[in-house]
Structures are given as C-alpha cells and as structure tokens.
Design goal:
mainly alpha; 0% strand
C-alpha cells in the first residue's frame, strides 16, 4: 500500500478551509448589504420628515410677521380686539384644545 502524498493532503485541507472562509465572507457580505439597505430606508424616512419639518417651520416663519397671523394667535390665547364686545355664555362648555387648531411644530 502506498502512502498518500502529504503535500496533497495539506493542499486539500487548506482548500477546504478557504472554501469555508469564502462561504462565511459571502454570508457576511449579504447580511451587511441587507442591514445597510434597511438603514438607508430608515434614513430616507427621517430625511423626508425633516424636509417636511423645514417646510412647516418656513411657513410659520413667513406667517409670523403678518398681522393676521398675530391676531389669530392672540385670539387663540383669549385676547379680544379693542373695538370688540365680549359676550360670555355661562352655559357654554370649554373646548379641550382651546380656541385653535393645534399645529405640530418640530
């Protein structure tokens, strides 16, 4: 019986280890690709929400200097104009949110 060549056995073991390592690296690359895709999707959602927030803040900023908007804010807080009469209904119920529609500001 002849003895198998030692060099061939070592080469086969190294090739097997290389295949195992390559399989692990391919699996790791696929996992990282999946995670990065998920993170990109989350970040795009956050960027979209931040852009909406910027648009809302821009609208509020442009409206903040107008007298009509300031008058509307004063009415929300219960102020009355100098030429207006105050009529109070004692049986009226108080709204839970006050006089105005709530606006979400970032």
């Amino acid at each position: 019986m002849s003895k198998p060549p030692v060099l061939m056995i070592i080469a086969s073991v190294l090739a097997g280890l290389g295949i195992i390592q390559m399989t692990f690296l391919i699996g790791q690359s696929l996992y990282r690709s999946y995670e990065w895709t998920r993170e990109i999707r989350v970040l795009r959602g956050e960027v979209h929400q931040l852009r909406l927030d910027l648009r809302t803040l821009g609208d509020v900023e442009t409206r903040a200097a107008t007298p009509d908007y300031l008058r509307e804010l004063a009415r929300c807080q219960g102020f009355v104009g100098s030429e207006e009469d105050v009529v109070v209904d004692e049986r009226a119920t108080t709204a839970a949110q006050g006089n105005c529609q709530p606006v979400r500001l970032p």
